[in-house]
Structure formats: structure tokens, C-alpha cells
Hints:
The complex is a heterodimer of chains A (154) and B (107). By secondary structure, chain A is an alpha+beta fold. Chain A has a single domain (5-153), classed as START domain (Alpha-D-Glucose-1,6-Bisphosphate, Chain A, domain 4, 2-Layer Sandwich). In chain A, 25% of the residues lie in helices and 44% in strands. Chain A has an eight-stranded antiparallel beta sheet. Chain A starts with a strand and ends with a helix. Chain B is mainly alpha-helical. Chain B has one domain (4-103): Orthogonal Bundle (Arc Repressor Mutant, subunit A), CATH 1.10.10.10. In chain B, strand 1 (57-59) and strand 2 (68-70) form a beta hairpin. In chain B, helix 1 runs antiparallel to helix 4 and helix 3 (30-37) packs across helix 4 (41-53). The model of chain B has no long low-confidence stretch (mean pLDDT 81). Chain A binds chain B through residues 1-2, 4, 6, 16, 18, 20-22, 26-27, 29-30, 36, 39-45, 97, 99, 128-130, 132-133, 135-143, 145-147, 150-151, 154, and chain B through 5, 8, 11-12, 14, 17-18, 20-22, 24-25, 78, 81-82, 84-101, 103-104.
Amino acid sequence: xxxxxxxxxxxxxxxxxxxxxxxxxxxxxxxxxxxxxxxxxxxxxxxxxxxxxxxxxxxxxxxxxxxxxxxxxxxxxxxxxxxxxxxxxxxxxxxxxxxxxxxxxxxxxxxxxxxxxxxxxxxxxxxxxxxxxxxxxxxxxxxxxxxxxxxxxx
Amino acid sequence: xxxxxxxxxxxxxxxxxxxxxxxxxxxxxxxxxxxxxxxxxxxxxxxxxxxxxxxxxxxxxxxxxxxxxxxxxxxxxxxxxxxxxxxxxxxxxxxxxxxxxxxxxxx
Lengths: 154, 107
């Protein structure tokens, strides 16, 4: 199984890399088509994404809504800035917890790597304090979901 | 040794996380913390008490002021938090492996 690597770069970037045993086309589609996104972009077990809007064009809207099925939920909104099919996506994302987090600009690249694909996610936050806050507070819904799970355990 | 439950409980509040993020940049007095948060001084003081009780921040006396700074254990707690993030992200990508395998044309 491939290992995900997450690291910081400079003052404002977060880099995530991961290799997949599938073509760049398949990985790109899985990152942009709602029916596929709803199968994996979920965080911990038990969470689902009942609403998934992904308008595949520059300026197109992104809206993901997650729920744990027990009344907890939150959502992310954003826009696509650039789409180079099967190679590169640039989008802006903000989480609503419920106040919107500062804009996170995300560049996702998909490069052929042998018979698979190397994905590189590069997040750019407005400033160092925002990145610190993001890492401290959990930049992904998974963090909030994990916290919700922790709460249920206590 | 910080009690991780107390630390995570303290980290559950967005204002307290923001206070920690501010303190990650350097020491600050309560008055300096009140400014960016649009909260009253008593409200900020309550949050600081929780963070102090969880061992996430330390305060020193300087005349009548008691500046706050991040405790070394806060870094550990934030690292733990980051480890949870890694896990959630990694779980997503492990699931994506399955989705990609299912997308392949079967013969």
C-alpha cells in the first residue's frame, strides 16, 4: 500500500503526496466526479457526503456537505480556478465550521509514475498564522469528524 | 506530562485554537489577545484559564501583566492533532485505492 506524505514548505504551504495504482485519468476523474468523490472523500468511518457539487469549469462551484448521520455535519465551499484534464487542478477551498476559514488555494497535480500516478497536492494559505491555525485546528473535515468521534468516546 | 484529553478538549474550541495560533507567533498579553478576537477581556481570560489548565500555555509575571506563551506540551498536542489529520487523510486515500480498483474495466 502506498504511503501518504504530508509536510510543510516555506511559511504558507502544505504539501501532500501519494502514489496510486491507476492512470492519471482515473485519479483525476475520482477527484472531480461527484459520484466517485462521494465514495472516498469522507474522513473517518461512518461519515457520508450527501451533497457533492463539482462544476468542472474555471469559475465552477464546489460544494461538499458531510454528515455523521447523527446530526453532526459541516461543509466546504470553493471554486475551480484552472482545470487541465487528467494533469492538474487548481481550486480554492474554505471550510465552514460554521464560520468560513481563510481561503486555501490548492494545486493538485497528477503525473504518470510507472504504471500508476503520483499525486501532489500543494496548499497555499494566506499567511503563516493561518497555516498554523489550520494545522492546529484541522484543515480537513476528517479532523472535525475525528474530534466528534473522540467526543463520543469520552 | 499533559493530559491529552484535557488538551484536546481545550483544542475543541475555535477561539482557543486561534489563541494558540497567535501564541505560536510569540508571547502576548491578555490585552493583546483581546484585540483581534472581538471578544471581551473576561471572555478571553476564561479561554486562557482553560488553556492554562490543560497545560497548553504558560504565564509569567511581569508587573501587573501576565504574558502568555505556548507551553512545550502544546506543540506535542498540536502534533497529535496533526497525526489525526494525517490519519483521516490517509484513510481517504486508502479508500480511493479501492474506488480506483473498481473503476478498472473488468474482463
